[in-house]
Amino acid sequence: MNDVGPYASDEKGLFYALDLGGTNFRVLRVLLGGKESRVVKKEYEEVSIPPHLMTESSDALFDYIASALAKFVATEGEGLHASPGRQRELGFTFSFPVRQTSISSGTLIKWTKGFSIDETVGQDVVGELTKAMERVGLDMRVAALVNDTIGTLAGGRYNNPDVVAAVILGTGTNAAYVERAHAIPKWHGLLPKSGDMVINMEWGNFRSSHLPLTEYDHALDAESLNPGEQIFEKMISGMYLGEVVRRVLLKMAEEAAIFGDDIPPKLKIPFILRTPHMSAIHHDTSPDLKVVGTKLKDILEISNTSLKMRRVIVELCDIVATRGARLSAAGIVGILKKLGRDTVKDGEKQKSVVALDGGLYEHYTKFRTCMEGTLGELLGEEVFENIVIELSNDGSGIGAALLAASHSQYL
Ligand code: ADP
Ligand code: MG
């Protein structure tokens, strides 16, 4: 839970954001022009994280991030540079479960999404970043620590006050929504002036006996870096969908010899089939499913597949993506229900906007279409007419810069 303060829109000046989500991290600088002009200019760079840094050591990971940030700061140019004598300020989007201890500090509860560095758990991640920035000689203050869902929610509301929730569908999945503070029994502190609080649900960690798991889900979980955790995420998000497909294919190869008597060795390698590959296979509309053939050959070294077999593989991608998309929709409906926005009250046309960010939602068209279709199905046409799903590209980064601005030391 987080009192992010008023969603002020009169912040001005140059602010930085660093968005560490899973696969890549993004560094951004944003020039805020106040109420009228809002985001005047933004520049960003995306840097991939070398896989060994995801498990090696805290210092190595944060040093890598801090150096990339320092390099980016060095490219400040005309019209987009910090005011003289003013320390640069940063919003740090850190999309892993954190126990937030203040606006600019929080301890890591656990890593997810393939990260696993034991020594970071229990540490203040802002402290870790600040120390690394000092080591690389970068003078910058972390003004706000935010989760990507909170960043997306703040960024979304900055543009549109009807935004009630934010959902991430990227490497992982999570959601946050705006709740009336008095409806939060767990909250014993002072009530914020606005009467609202935002809740970071960490819904990726949802599990329930009502959520049927297949043998593939169980095996994927058991062999993961975080067994027993993030079960919902493992059924839905970009890090895992391709891996579920690979596991089913392997079983079909072993038990039904769909690729002949020998099992293609590449098919045994975990995470070799990534979700973008799966998406390319799923969207293949060529009459002979040429893309499917090429992907199987290039990624799994399986050649000479029959058209019939290719069709089966497309169908498999459809089943796995559909499950993820429908579960995501169910999660969103859960939030709308909690907010009492799943019904039309006396013909009142109140818009509810959900800000969506993440590469899975952005790029996997069939996933997105299925998710939106399911929302309509679950809510009914009349309610669904008032629900807007808004792609909030880079929302988590911009939102972090905004929150840094509203917690600036120069206010
Ligand atoms: P993060 O979640 O790390 O912040 P993104 O929001 O950019 O990063 O999401 C990246 C994820 O989006 C990738 O891990 C991948 O699973 C998924 N993705 C990216 N491109 C595609 C694509 N073309 N089709 C399906 N999924 C994609
Ligand atoms: Mg992200």
How is this fold's topology laid out?
Blueprint: E1 12-20, E2 24-33, H1 34-37, E3 39-48, H2 58-73, E4 88-94, E5 98-102, E6 105-108, H3 125-135, E7 140-146, H4 148-159, E8 163-169, E9 173-180, E10 196-200, H5 215-222, H6 231-236, H7 241-256, H8 275-282, H9 290-300, H10 307-338, E11 352-357, H11 359-363, H12 365-379, H13 381-384, E12 387-391, H14 395-406
Helix pairs in contact: 2-3, 4-14, 7-8, 7-10, 8-10, 10-12
The protein binds adenosine-5'-diphosphate and magnesium ion.
The site of adenosine-5'-diphosphate has 17 residues, from helix 8 and helix 11.
Can you describe what's shown?
The chain is an alpha/beta fold and 411 residues long. Helix content is 39%, strand content 20%. It has 14 helices and 12 strands. It has a 5-stranded mixed sheet. Strands 10-9-8-11-12 form a 5-stranded mixed sheet, with helices on both faces. A two-stranded antiparallel sheet has the order 5-6. α2 packs across α3, α4 packs across α14 and α10 crosses α12. The longest helix has 32 residues. The chain is globular. The two termini are 24 Å apart. The structure holds adenosine-5'-diphosphate and magnesium ion. The site of magnesium ion has 7 residues, from loops.
